[in-house]
Amino acid sequence: MQSVDMPTAARNAEQMLLQTTAQWGGREDLWVFGYASLIARPEFEASEHRAGYIHGWHRALRMRSRINRGTPEQPGLVFALLPGGSCQGVAYRVPRKRAAAELERLWQREMPSAVYDPRFLPCRTSRGEVRALAFTLSRHSPSCVQGMADRDLVHIFKHARGRFGTTLDYLLETADALRRRGLRDREIERMVDLARAHALVQPHT
Fold it and tell me: Which has the minimum average pLDDT: 36-45, 55-64, 92-101, 159-168?
C-alpha cells in the first residue's frame, strides 16, 4: 500500500502518521528503509539491519532545505527518494512492541513539515524481501529541485548552511556512511569529486 500525494497546503503530519500507522497495521515488526541520514544517524532503536535494495526509486540530492541545511535566503539540499532507477540502502527492523513509539520519534525527525510522501515499498535483502517504510518525494513537490547545473551545486556547497550544518557536510556524511557499509552511489561519488575539484574537500576525503 502506498501513500497518496497531497497538495502541500493540505498536508498534515499528524494525519499522515495515523495513515502510515494504519498501513503498517501493528501486527508485525516494522521495517524502515534508510538511504541517507538514516544510515549515518539512525537515531531509533532497531533490532536488526540488513543491506537493502529498492527498485523503482533512486537517491537524489534534490530536496530544498531551508532550515536544516540551508536558509530561506540560501536554501540547501538534502537527499530524497525520487521515482525511477534503484537505490541501495539499509533496511532496519523495529520490533512490533516498540514500533509505534519509534515511528513517532522518526516522524518528529523526518516529517515536521510533512514534505515527504511516506510509502511502504518492497525491499530486497539477503534474507528475502521485506515491506519497508521509505520517505519519498514527489517530482511535483515545490520542495523538489527539477534540475541543477554543476555551477549552481558548487554555489550551494560553498554557501548553504542551516541549523545542522552545511549541505556539503551532509553530502560527505552520507558518502562516508555508504562507504562504511560497502554501498556505492556513483552520483554521490561524482558530487564529492566536484567539490574536491573546487578545493572544497581535502584530497584525502
Answer: 36-45
Cα separation, 43 vs 105, in Å, equals 9
Nearest Cα to Cα of residue 95 among 25, 35, 48: 48
What are the cell numbers at 102? 519509534
Whether residue 51 contacts residue 88, with contact meaning beta carbons closer than 8 Å, is answered with: yes
- With bands split at pLDDT 50, 70 and 90, how would you rate the model's confidence at 10? low
SS3 5: coil
Question: What pLDDT, on a 0 to 100 scale, did the predictor assign at position 204?
Answer: 63
**Per this entry, what is the length of the chain?**
205
Residue 38, all three cell numbers = 538514516
In whole angstroms, what is the distance from residue 69 CA to residue 183 CA? 24
Domains of the chain (ranges, CATH numbers): 8-197 (3.10.490.10)
Give the angle 62-65-69 at the CA atoms, nearest 5°.
Answer: 110
Q: Above pLDDT 90, what percent of the chain?
A: 88
Summarize the confidence of residues 106-124 as an average pLDDT. 95
Among candidates 62, 64, 68, 75, which has minimal Cα distance to 162? 68
Instruction: In whole angstroms, give the CA distance from residue 140 to residue 132.
Output: 23
